[in-house]
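Sample entry (122 residues):
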Amino acid sequence: MPITFTGFHHAGVLVTDVERAAAFYEQVLGLENLERPDFGFPGRWYDLKNGHQLHLLGTTDIPAHSTNLPRFDRHIALTVPDLQKTAEELTEMGYPFSLGTGRGGAAQIFLRDPDGNMIELR
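Predicted structure, serialized as tokens:
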């Protein structure tokens, strides 16, 4: 019998430079920093709204990733109110991304944080 769960709480991604990653998540994605306990290693927590969080976990070793933007890779997906406007804002910032199409023909944006973690915007 499978376990029962009531919803999603948080996702954690590995980063090699917490401050560099924080600049991406705060300045490019506009995430709000949350208070984080001292776990003895660097990190940052973010509020994704509706009780959801993103945790950055500082490390010196991240598995290699492809530099292109494949559709299927480790990632988090965030919902944005206007995908076209978001694409325009990323272009204005000079931040590289690619466009894709998901189930039912829904448009998506794919970009990577400084450590290669994929971010899907839909």
